[in-house]
Structures are given as C-alpha cells and as structure tokens.
What does this fold into?
Amino acid sequence: MSLELVDVSVQFHRSGRTPVPAVVGVSLHVDPSCILGLVGESGSGKSSLGRAAVGVYRPSHGQVLFNGEPVRHLGALARPRNQIGLQMVFQNPFESLNPRRRIGSQILDGMTRSGMSRKARLKRMTESLEQLGLPARAAGRYPHQFSGGQRQRIAIARALAVAPSIMVLDEPLASLDASAQAQLANTLRVLADDQHVGMLLISHDLAIVRHVADQLAVMYLATIVESGPTADVWSLPLHPYTEALIGAIPTADGKGQLPIALTGEVGDPAAPPSGCRFHPRCPYAREKCVRETPPLLDIAPGRKVACWLHRPGRTLRPPAEQDPGDLGAPISLPHGQDVLAHTGGLTTT
Amino acid sequence: MRVVDGIDLDVTAGRVAGVAGESGSGKTVSMMAILGLLPPGSVVSGEACFRGDDLLAASDEQIAKRRGKDIGLVMQDPHSSLHPMLSVGQQLTDHVKYHLKVGNREARERAIDLLRQVRIPDPEGSFHAHPHHFSGGMRQRIAIAIALACGPSLLIADEPTTGLDVTVQAGILHLLHDLGELHNLGIILITHDLGVMSALADSLTVLYAGRVVEAGPTSTVLGAPRHPYTAALLAALPNPARPEARLLPIPGHLGPPDRWPAGCTFHPRCLYAESRCSQVVPELRSVGGGRLHACLVDPFGPQS
It folds into this structure.
C-alpha cells in the first residue's frame, strides 16, 4: 500500500499564453507509517504536486500510482472504491468544511462508498474524531463552533474516517498557534506510528517538519532539489537552497541572532532561470550552473541532490566546502537584494 | 469586558521592545489604543507618554497628526493594508504630502528613496506599479516604506512577518534591524513567534489574557523563563537544537475575555498551579536584572 509518483509534471494552461509548468519531473514515493515532508517556499509547486498525487489535477506527464494502479483523475467523479485509501486534507479548514452542515454529516459523506453499514459508519466517525482528540459530541456541531486548530483536526478526522493507508496533507500545521501546532504534530506522528498511515506532509515550515517527518523532499521552483532522511538532511544539507531554508529559521533561544537571509525571490515558473533554477540566488553558483541543469542524483544511500557541487562517490560536505573542480568561475550575484523579484507576476517571454 | 489590564511598556530610540502572546492576548488592542484606533465605546485608562505628551489624553485631531508621522505602523497583512487600486508611488506620496506639506516632486524623490531603502528592485519603475504586481514579501517592504515615509521616531510592527516564507521573513527581519539602526527608531514588535522575537527584540513583554505575565531582556526571558506560561510556550516550539525532543502542547485553551478565569488567568492550564492561584491575582513583581514576573508559585525561581 504505497503512493508512487513517477516523473510527474503538472502544467496550467492560460488562454493565449504559454502554459505554466508548476511541477516538472518529480518522482517521490510514500510508504505506510512513513511521513514524507515536502518543503519549499510558496510558489514552488508543492500544493500542485499534492493535488496531482490524489487525482485532483491531471499530470501533464508522468504517472501517479496508488498500490501500483494509476490514480484516476477525479474531475466531478467520485474516487474509485479501490482508491478510497488515498485521502487528501486541504490547506484551509475554514474553506474545506461546509459552514452550513454539521461536522458529523460531513465526516459520514466520505464513507458513503465504503460499503459499511450505517451503524458501522457512525462508530467509525466517533472513532476518528476521538483519534484526533475531539469529543464524540462534536459531530452535532457546526464548523464555526470550533477554533482553527480544532477545525484542522476535523478535516483530518474526515479523511481518517475511511481508514486511509496514505494521506496527503497540505499545510495542516500552518496558521495554528504554537501549542495547537505542537499538539497536531504529535497526533500526526501517532497516526503514522500506530495506525500505519503514510503521509505526504506539505509544509513551508521546515522546523516543524523536522519534528514530524521521517523523510524530507525539498522543492524549488517546480523541481525537487534534495531529498533524504530528515535527520541527515537537517544535520548536513547538501543543496545550497536547503542550507538557506534551514539557516533562515529563527531560533527562540534569546541569543539575538538574525537568521541568514537569502537574496532574491522564487522566480517565475513560466520563465525559469537557465541551468540550475536556483543559480541566481545561490552563493556558490559557477559558470556551469548557469548553462546546464544539474540532475537529481543519488549521492549517498537514501540521499539525492541536484547540485553540480555534489557528485556520487565524493565525500559529503557542506556546499561551501565542496571543491568546485571544473565548474568554471564563480558567478557574482547581482548587486543588492531581490534582483529576481519583480513586477508582472506570471509574465511570458 | 476587560480585554487588556495594566500593561507597562518602555521603548527607547534605537531599541526594539517585543510584545508576545497568543491570539486574543491583547497585543494588538494595546497598540491600537495608543494610536487612537479603537472602536467608539472603548474605554482606555492609563498613560502613553510619547516624547512628553500623553497620547491617551490627546484629542482625535492631535492623534491623527501624529499617527503615520511620528509613529509609523506596519500591519500583519500587506494584502489588506495596501490599497489595491492605487499605485505604490501614490500611496507613498499622498502620505508624505499630507503630513510633511511638501510638493509633488519632493514627495516623489522621497518615495523613490524609501523604496530603495527597503530594497525594492528598480525603485523608479516600482513607483508606478500597483500592489498586485509584487509578492507578499515585497508588499510588506512597501508597507514598511510607507510607515517610515514621514520620518517617525517610533515604529509599531504588528506581526510584520506572519504568513511569509522563512526566507522572506529573514529578509524582512534584516531590513527592520538595519532601518531601526539607520534611523535610530524605537520599535514595538508585536508577534506570537518567539523565534522572530529572539532575532530582533532587545526586551520582551509576554502577555497572557490581557495581562503582563513576564517581562525583561529578551536573552534572559527566553534563555531562562521565569513564568510557567513563557516556559510552556517555549516547550511547544520546535527547537532546531533539540530536534529529538517531543513537542509539549499547552493543555486547554484561552477562552473569550468574558470567560477568563479568576485569580491567575493561566492557572487552569498551568502545570504548577496551586489552589491559591485560582483566588489571588498575582502581582507583577521585580526580581532583579530588569526582570518582572507575575507568578505566585514561581517554580523556576532561585529557591525552587
């Protein structure tokens, strides 16, 4: 029971203009009991990838397999019965829950195709609420009677009611205060460990993902730039972007240190930079990085990185300590900050 | 309904005073009170001395003259604090022309200089662009430029980086730090994010249910919290230095102001609460080193 994405691309078409490639050639797999954290800045394509993984978006290229079978593009159709074990929790529980219906009936909706008797469904609904730390009487209430953290739990309980083997969760921990975030993070870990639910956890918050996820995949401008076991990636980030993401997290230790700021902003996916997509913001960029796109290579057991500085067989070192070898002269970053950022939004060339 | 109860805060030029607390703790309400932005019917007592004048005693016209001029405000969401239909340049110059009584050309020069200061690429070109042309981080930079446009001596930044990506947040934190030094600003930083607080604030005041529970230099308050609430907040945060540690949520939640408990408002959620905590409101007392806290039990005190 696993979810596998093979070379998946997602494109959005715009009338009269070139399509926007939101996801380009991503391969991932999510196993039961394993939490795969997918991190990156907003605009990197994380949510589009998550939606393609459950059949909300149709991949323009590549395949999404659930238990070895292609995930059907849903459109207006219900999910096929053999794919009910694949569930999605959407980003905003204020929008994904119907404000005019009681919690209980919304949770029961998902089970209509499960083949369970009504009694069994009611029992399962109560169980899933309780697994998320909500009382059974919550079923009789409306979404507005709950806090943001509780609503997020309800949205997860709804997905959990059909006993999924894989869940895709889009930013479930965002916009919660620290305590609610900690509580939900712990619950996700319990669901993975005890209920053997595999999860694709989409988040922009690397610090919380560090506590929850077994595996990490870092996305930058529609592509995966690094992946590996969370603890390893955290202690020795190989891609300069991963390094920057970790360095940007401020620590509440009272030491008064400013986090490391990365220059520039995520570029435009419709007109990505040449070569390595990260090169305009990369402090280690060299001539080759501008010309050629680095492939995502297996660098060490379980670890992949797409950066010219790292090659299979080399000792793992932080990007600053890797010998650039034949990559050419360093590229000087354009003066000042935020050079890429700019007006026009999604413009075409 | 009492939502904020007896908050003391000092801000001096060139320093950053942090105000932390969960949503509903009264962080924003206190700042709105200073700026005279509370809805009609609100009752505010106390003093807010700004360069010798009591802002709370000032008339609406007097406050209006200072708001945006002597005191700049950066709000959480630049999507709603910038006018979507007006160009960035117009939003910057209207403000400058109103408060500083300068002409078009001078206002324009000032606006472009401000855009440069907040590191907006191509300031001349950006002058004519509209807010939707910019990313969230850039919009927040523009909001900061507007707040600084009339040369304030005090800047109130209310959750200035909430909702931004960490990389963008880091840039905004650097910017606030650099501009604070450059203009010798006093900054009041309001945020629930103790990481952001740690990076920027010199002093820290922690609010819970409208009251100050702990205050002092940021380094000691976060390094060795004295109040159980501050300690609980820190234990709930992911700590990159201790990645294996389990996150400890704070049990229960802070209800609406009309249902706040008697005595110490934190006692129903506190691991160290004793029976007296539900009866007596703890006083905020000084414990040396510039630190204050309001806890009867004081479980992290030197004697405990």
Q: What stands out?
A: The domain at 16-201 of chain B is CATH 3.40.50.300 (Rossmann fold).
